[in-house]
Input
Amino acid sequence: MSRHQLLFVFKTAILFFLVVPGIVLSGQKSGELLFGSVAMDIPAVMHKRLKPLTTYLSKTLGRPVSLKLSPNMGTAIRETATGAVDMAYLTPVAYINARKKGQARIIAKTVTKGKASFKLMIVVKQDSPIKSVKQLVGKSFAFGDKKALLQRAAVVGSGLPLEKLGSYQFIGHYDNIVRAIMIGDFDAGILKDTMAYKWEGKGVRILYATPDLPPYNITASKNVDNATFMKLQKAFLDLDPKNPEHLKIIKALDKKYDGFARTSDEEYDIVRELIKPFN
Output
């Protein structure tokens, strides 16, 4: 190879290494934020519920926000704790675990029917002869995700030790629990209040409700810098139910929601105490 040819190859190689890394880095600096979520419904439903919110965040923050849904509770916790997602819609226990494992920070909590708290409810089939929690001794019970410790803690808190149940299974999403109870596969099951209210009188009956608990929330991973954290918090707190466009976003996430409110890690101490025996 001639000196001229060698010089051409060398220049081409240098140009390649200058240009290609620039392309890679520009992709890394695109500013995209990933939004995760616990799997409360099937993925298609969760995507429909969260998409208006991520669209709003993209416009408000001036950077793309994309969904990265988790198939189960454990994955949602791990992805938030490790920073595989930048923020996530989490249950109280999922938030507590993500904070413990990965220094996650809570951005805001949800507001339901004017209350910044929620309840877990034990439900039975609408025409079930079961009228009290005591009558669930020896009966079959449906839980959601095995990682959802608060569900089991709520049943124990109702005065029913799990060993007194005839049997229990973890069958995933709340929709699965509703269907299983309505067709008679289980005598009872546990639901979040919004789902219980949705189906109350339409196939299920509420048997027991927990005291008020700190609600579902939006949590940021440790990878989110302070400036972005503050912008995200403002974006959620600025969602105004009196604004028709904002109301659509809020109700898409959950029809019973009214918006978001400020919260603190300390507010979730009651949940920490409740689940302590299950840790």
Remarks:
- The longest helix spans residues 3-28.
- The longest strand covers residues 105-112.
- Residues 3-29 have pLDDT under 50 and may be disordered.
